[in-house]
Write a structure and sequence with these properties.
The chain has 300 residues and is an all-alpha fold. It has 14 helices and no strands. The longest helix is centred in the C-terminal third of the chain and has 37 residues.
Length: 300
Amino acid sequence: MSAPQKVIRRANAGTTEAPWVRWTLIGIALLFMFLFLILPLAAVATEALRKGFGAYLEALKEPDAWSAIRLTLITAAIAVPLNLVFGVAAAWAIAKFEFRGKAVLTTLVDLPFAVSPVVAGLIYVLVFGAQGWFGPWLAAHDIKIIFAVPGIVLATVFVTFPFIARELIPLMQAQGTDEEQAAIVLGATGWQTFWRVTLPNIKWGLLYGVILCNARAMGEFGAVSVVSGHIRGQTNTMPLHVEVLYNEYQSVAAFAVASLLAILAVVTLVIKSVIEWRHEREMKAIAELPPERPPEPSAA
């Protein structure tokens, strides 16, 4: 093959690098995925089933494990809808409107990314703990937040609320406001504009953000560890229960519960891939639609 033909072939492939460079980069990426993704998942599955499938099921049937699973699901079921409402509202406000404090709101959305989850948990202890700002008032009214489910939910909401907003803000900014303005000019109300124009345009980004938020809510450890009190069978979520079992040298039971979190991670990746595939397919179908022909002028 002549030199010009090689250059044309590389240009058609999207790169001008030599084949050995591309194959080296692909090999490094595959090796990285094997060492840091496939191998840990295989290790979790192997350790969880080390004493047989019966021992695996017994570890999951244990009352404390069921309590941890139930609390994790309850926490995610509360935190994700709250973040869904906040994320859509914040993204809509930031992307579609100009107002004072817009930069402050954008900064606050990113705050949990900059603050350690442990620090976030300590903040809630400072505010709602027995010696905190509102601790005496809460104790006087028999309201328990720290070392109880409300504190776990609050900590989870804090660490997960950027996920949906951060998925939607760039998407809404790229879409602009032309369609919403056209709908309003045609007589649509604000809610009609949102449900029939804005929401269909952001559905794939919204689903992606919800999936990431749910995965983080179920796997959160740092902030929840601070506010939960580690009360076994009451305030231990699945990650905390795994830590307790591992510290007690119950490795099979610990890896059995950890396998549920690993399965959640794999399911999250699969759903993410399906959503991206559906979105790309939908965008490709829209791009392939023939342009509308203008109406032909009528004969005089």
